[in-house]
Amino acid sequence: MPSPIREAILTLSSSNMTQLNPPPSPGTHRLRRLQSAHSLGAKAANQPSLISQQRLQLQQQQQQQQQQQQQLPHHLHLHSQIPHSQQQRSGSPTGRNGPLSRQRTRSNSDAGSIHHPNALASSKRSALGKRSLAADAMSLEKLLRDGPPSGDVGGALESARLKILDQGIKSDSDGMSSLRIYVWLILLNAPVLDTDDYLSLIHRGASPAYSKIRNDTFRTLTTDPLFRRRVSEASLIRLLNAVAWKLHDAREERMKESKDEPGTYVQGMNVLAAPFLYAARSEAEAFVAFYQLLTRECPGYIRGAMDGVHKGLALVDKVLAIVDPKLSLYLLSKNMSAEIYAFPSVMTLCACTPPLPEVLRLWDFLFAYGPHLNILCIVAQLVMIRTQILNSPSPNKLLRAFPALQADQIKRTTLAIIKMIPDDVYDEISSHAQ
């Protein structure tokens, strides 16, 4: 079966897809499947990041049976991922309860019900990625509202991913969309959260990380008028404090069981939380999506010495050396490793680079096919300004703040880069944040 990303690249190639300088020995590495969403099933709790093909297929079958038993074959169960007490006031695109769960192959958020990015490393990829022709003919909004045609949850989800890749999520000039937060909840496979549960975390008062949070929130996206106009510092403080309590509780429990160190609040989480609050219609929605991203997609970013971030930075250097050796050598000759210039971009999934509407569009892509692809998106931004870098005697000044995000161009360049990455390096990228 053809890869969904290969099909997407063929489609995008007709619209001037970016051509990159070939690496010294590109070989014949096949294009990654980016199996980040092939079924909309219920997600198993505490699922490992690497998941086998057999388990994916079994989960798909079980979920389909469960849906049939519940007699809801025509709905994507969007609202079960949204706090029930918010469903009336938040303007959901459907009037039914239930989440559009999913299961990708390259990230933990996928691990439950759609193909998971890390599973992409598996050699057994051919069974995943079936699209629904009926879903292809529907708009994304109609697909979420009416549910998968003929109950084909996996096919509908794959079609939804490709719609996001090719068409994006409709939004206004400020990046606002009534649909986006629900799509994110679905793609992140966010669990059900009642608003009262969120409020109970708020009512616990200051968390152990409260002073660190207050030291960060006042400087979050200070130069972005759109964010400042829509999101208050008080809202950001409440969200981060609630997340800090959840991480604290998990830490206490894990320490009792003598397990690996769980995550905790770290600097940079304030910027990573900002787009969720901007896109969501309530703090509770932003909370559940943000917490899911941290704990399922990139727990390595908030654990210990932020090892996942440092692994990501090393991969930026490695990928750039493969994709553009000349640019890589020039930066290294100036003592410019990714640790110097790319730390904020890795930690925040590029949310540190304005404008915010472009961040949201880039996140649509990352959540659809795996946040691990942010590593390639950072390299894509370097490639896009390679001429300026090579002509600059002091690239440190140029990279002190990346140029304004251009989500569509970054995506096109990223799709070109994917074809150039060896399998073993891509496997490192897909698992670096775990």
From TrEMBL:
Fetch the Pfam families from UniProt.
RabGAP-TBC
Query: What residue spans carry the Low complexity bias annotation?
Result: 52-88
- From what superkingdom does this record's organism come? Eukaryota
The record, for InterPro entries, names: Rab-GAP-TBC_dom (IPR000195), Rab-GAP_TBC_sf (IPR035969)
- The Rab-GAP TBC domain covers which part of the protein? 174-370
Bias type Polar residues, positions: 89-111
- Residue ranges for the region (Disordered) are 12-31, 52-127
* Signal peptide range: none
Query: What's the name of the protein?
Result: Rab-GAP TBC domain-containing protein
Q: Which organism is it from?
A: Phialemonium thermophilum
